[in-house]
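My main concern about presentation is that the manuscript never shows what a single data entry looks like. The format is easy to grasp once an entry is in front of the reader. For illustration, here is how one protein appears when written out as sequence plus structure tokens:
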Amino acid sequence: MGSTAVPGLAAKPIIDIMLGLPALNDIAPYIPALKSAGFHLQPQMAAAMPDRHDFAKPAAHPREVHLHAVALDSAFWRDKLAFRDALRADEPLAGQYADLKRQLAYDHSGDRAAYTDAKSGFIASVLAMAAGKPHGKPAAR
């Protein structure tokens, strides 16, 4: 679902996967299989992001995979897929996003939360365009 899901887009070497559940609380039966596949539940993330369950593989850094278990058709589910699809469909837009990510990675090299937060305006603009709402063309920094 992340940048690695957009061909040619600059991305850190971590694959983001989204697992859709009928309801967010339906995760319990899947946890043993996820653990046996090497995924580790990240319960510390739940307080900050209660709309999903996060898993990482391996447990320690550097990580290779982040798995986000979310409710099917939740806002998180819809937004992540809409953003990915918009970037896949519009190469210049994907290029703008890549440029922004590079600049923000430089600006916030020691602060992942600030890096993520700084991308939010661009992402909101893309989602507004995807929904057909006038919001203006996203501007790269």
Summary: DSSP finds five helices and four strands in the chain. The CA atoms of residues 21 and 126 lie 25 Å apart. The chain has a mean pLDDT of 91.
